[in-house]
Design brief:
single chain; 317 residues; mainly alpha; 44% helix; 5% strand
């Protein structure tokens, strides 16, 4: 009895004759499965014949599935009658899979929203190349090392180097018993311990002679040598206290004179483009600025002094 309305409505549309044939084919398996016929009913079959896109073939499966009866597809083959809950789950799955709506003719490859999202995310990109260039520049600077042959040549040239006091060009520092090397408390590692613990002291000649084996007049002031470092010998001779820098100067365990080591460092940094002053063997402001720049590029602690890591990095340790 449920099939009669379908057969009466399909001839009323002359242009939909092919649909009748499909409807008839869909009815054949229904005769073999009476249970399925009772669950669908005439309204379901009528929905299948009145679907606007049914006569255009199966180009839009998503729209056909949403418009036809739950128990049949366009070809009329029964696929089972899902419960309303299952149908809702199927629709939610289709939404989750981002399937096109029934009115869409083809799934878009790139929606305007996606393009807009990409355009919105694009602005930070220019900063990235700039950061990469800076990183590459830093890597290039850190990779820049002095030429070992040039270092040996400079050291040979300075074998007999002797610094001269230049108070007009490089002012002398004054004795300050409470002075501490600025920033040294943040320098980590045993190689910086001498800088952290340095305290200027004033003693007479007898005291220095009894405590240290080597005290020498270098560049207008007396220095004493202790375990790889030269220190100002404040008070050894009050008439010879010209010091451009008050602090330890690392020269290694060969106990080379500090002015010669300073001249070597100045010449190498000058060769690399860091130092633009005169090679005078005095650890003045220009030399300390050059040391700071080199240490920063090499990833070393910026002490602005000649320390063990810096001298090793320059190939002079």
């Amino acid at each position: 009895m449920a099939q009669q309305p379908v057969e009466q409505q399909s001839p009323s549309k002359g242009k939909r004759a092919p649909e009748k044939a499909r409807t008839t084919e869909a009815q054949q398996p229904k005769g073999k499965q009476p249970g399925a016929m009772k669950e669908r009913g005439a309204t379901t079959e009528r929905g299948a014949t009145t679907e606007p896109g049914a006569g255009k073939g199966r180009k839009t499966p998503a729209s056909q599935e949403s418009a036809t009866a739950p128990g049949a597809n366009v070809s009329g083959q029964p696929v089972g009658a899902p419960t309303p809950g299952a149908k809702q789950q199927a629709q939610e799955r289709r939404k989750g899979m981002k399937t096109p709506p029934p009115s869409a003719k083809a799934p878009p490859k790139a929606t305007p929203a996606t393009a807009g999202a990409k355009a919105t995310a694009a602005p930070p990109a220019p900063a990235s190349p700039a950061g990469q260039q800076n990183a590459q520049a830093n890597v290039g600077a850190k990779a820049k090392k002095p030429d070992p042959q040039k270092v040996q040549q400079i050291k040979s040239q300075h074998a007999n180097f002797r610094a001269q006091p230049k108070p007009q060009q490089v002012p002398a520092v004054t004795f300050n018993q409470s002075r501490r090397i600025e920033g040294s408390e943040r320098w980590e590692g045993p190689q910086y311990e001498v800088f952290r613990s340095y305290r200027p002291e004033r003693h007479d000649q007898g005291w220095y002679r009894s405590h240290y084996n080597r005290v020498e007049l270098i560049g207008g002031g007396y220095y004493f040598w202790n375990n790889g470092y030269w220190y100002p010998a404040w008070g050894y001779d009050p008439s010879a206290e010209y010091y451009a820098y008050d602090g330890p100067i690392y020269v290694g365990h060969r106990a080379e004179p500090p002015d010669k080591v300073i001249a070597d460092v100045q010449a190498v940094l000058q060769e690399m483009g860091y130092y633009r002053g005169e090679v005078d063997g005095l650890l003045g402001p220009l030399t300390r600025e050059a040391l700071t720049a080199y240490q920063a590029d090499q990833g070393l602690t910026t002490t602005a002094a000649i320390d063990q890591p810096t001298l090793d990095s320059l190939g002079m340790g």
